[in-house]
Fold:
Amino acid sequence: MKLDKNYWEERYLENKLGWDIGYVSTPIKTYVDQLDDTSLKILIPGAGRGYEARYLHENGFKETYVVDIASQPLRHIGEVCPDFPPEHLLENDYFKIEEKEFDLILEQTFFCALAPRLRPQYVKKMYELLKPGGILVGLLFDFPLSDSGPPFGGSAEEYHELFRDSFTIQKLERAHNSIPPRQGKELFFIFEK
Ligand SMILES: C[S@@+](CC[C@H](N)C(=O)[O-])C[C@H]1O[C@@H](n2cnc3c(N)ncnc32)[C@H](O)[C@@H]1O
Structure:
């Protein structure tokens, strides 16, 4: 199966959106709620319908960007949040975006949506996108990696191994405030460039 633009557009067209919880997830909301600096330049890759991006925008984080390879979720964000800057809705492949110098990148069900062979490239791209000292924060699934996906799983050990050469692992632990269907199945992390 090729996880390309066509694949994702088709999922949106058929409304097969098992990942779409319909609201900002509790761990991300909790993290955002303790941020003071609304001038942070923030990216949400593979943002889907962008509940987290919209929450940030509504709370004054006007330098929030999203990237998604599919056009439909970005159109949706523009419709439900008309004052979200259209130039911050990047319809592109994450691996090709040129906007840089992010202070913060929020990960949620994007890493797990990519073919596992792309994981080293994901790390390299995150490193390029962040400012020195920039932070990658979010959630990674904690269930065994297999061929059946997306979502593709992984473990704390694997993620440690993958990120430790480029990032300082400040936190990588079982999330305590996951949404009910994901309880016990995800890790909350903070990695610093
Ligand atoms: C599993 S969904 C998660 C959406 C969102 N993060 C959420 O939690 O609701 C994965 C998203 O990543 C997007 N995507 C997949 N591959 C991508 C790529 N290479 N570059 C940018 N977006 C991509 C898909 O179109 C889809 O919207």
User: Anything to note?
Assistant: The helical segments are 5-13, 26-33, 51-58, 71-80, 119-129, 156-163. The chain is about 30% helix and 25% strand.
